[in-house]
Amino acid sequence: MKRQLLNILLIAGLIAIVTSCNTKSSYKTLIITGRNTSNWKESSSVLKQILDGSGLFSCEIATNPKSAGDTSSFEPDFSKYKLVVIDYNVDSWSEKTKTAFLDFVRNGGGVIVYQGASSSFPDWKEYNEICGLGGWGNRSEKDGPYVYYRNNELVTDSSAGIAGSYGKLSEYEVRVRNLDHPVTRGLPVRWMHGYDVLYARLRGPAKNMEILATAYSDTAGGGSGRNEPVLMAITYGKGRIFHTTMGILGEGGGPAVHCAGFIVTLQRGAEWAVTGNVTQAVPNDFPNAAGIVLRPDYKEITLEDDFANIVNYEISKSTKYLTDLQARIRKASGDAKTLLKYEKMMVSVLKNSEATIDSKKLILRELSWMGTDYCIASIKELVKNEELKHEAEFALERLNVEK
């Protein structure tokens, strides 16, 4: 028990040090919100929590306008920031604010166009170029073509029609179209996203734009029958823009913003928008095509979380913490020092009198193929335990140790 606590405290200390270091070098970010078609009073706080949680950003929130139709007093100093997040889609800004924003982007400022901001400022030509594709607000073929995928081919469609639609909220599969872009590099080709709205029939200038990922808008739910863009990367002057149509927010959050896929792509897209690169590793809990992965508190599972929960594991509970540990072990292949650290922490579970029988069975199976001499004595002790005798003997056999 003491060894386990010491290991957990050590990990917590390292995490605190890393977080502290990241915060000192964080990118100052402005989230612009206020009077949105979505739950903007909560969404800005969620975006701040997600971006600040990466350790790379330090966010401030600006609400505009403070009263309906009045934007005259909204004059943020964009030059103070490295990243601007648009979570706003109602009244137009003053010409002075528009000019300041365009100067910010042209000179290399990063931008995130988030969800409902796809419909912002329909009459502002430069914003539509920054956004790439947009919808609603009387947009039509005059504003640019539809852009989507059909049979794995990019389609630019200039036919007449509305701009912007969506079907029923649902879970949907995201298909990465550009695996070489910094934002999507290392992600699964296909992954499931939580219950969300899927924008369709967006159209716009689509200049200097790359579609990073799409999702199929199913006609059965009122969709377009097309593979619609959900993640886009745009350049404007020296600026970089990450446009995500995902992340509708219900009361108290919801699967869309709790989805690990949304959270991670937002964090990676933000870093790319600021630096042109992504240093964040793809986390172990990133979803795949088998199902969605939710983070109720928006945070990635840590090694500390793994062991804090594994000790209480019972057969009817989720194995996600063991799965995360297994992924860490695979990633550490060939790194003897890291693997030994994991092994010592697993042995501490075997020695923990408060750990469940089911948790020890899981640990024995892992040690059976990756354990070293360090774990042998502890496994031999468990041969004496009738409830663990079989698993302990099996582990020793696989480790080529006589019982």
What can you see in these coordinates?
- The protein is α/β, with parallel strands linked by helices and 403 residues long.
- The chain is built from twelve helices and 13 strands.
- It has a nine-stranded mixed beta sheet, with helices on both faces.
- The two termini are 25 Å apart.
- The protein folds into two domains: 26-275, Class I glutamine amidotransferase (GATase) domain (Rossmann fold), CATH 3.40.50; 303-398.
Could you tell me the CATH topology label of the largest domain.
Answer: Rossmann fold
Seen as an oligomer or otherwise, the chain set is single chain
- Topology as a string of helices (H) and strands (E): HEHEEHEHEEEEEEEEEHHHHHHHH
Radius of gyration: 25 Å
**In terms of structural class, how would the helical and strand content be classed?**
alpha/beta
Tell me, briefly, the overall form: elongated
CATH superfamily of the largest domain: Class I glutamine amidotransferase (GATase) domain
Taken together, the total number of domains comes to 2
Q: Give helix % range.
A: 25-40%
Total helical segments: 12
Task: Give me the CATH architecture of the largest domain, please.
Answer: 3-Layer(aba) Sandwich
How many strands, which pairing sense, and closed or not: the largest β-sheet?
A: 9 strands, mixed
Q: Return residue spans where pLDDT drops below 50 for at least 5 consecutive residues.
A: 1-24
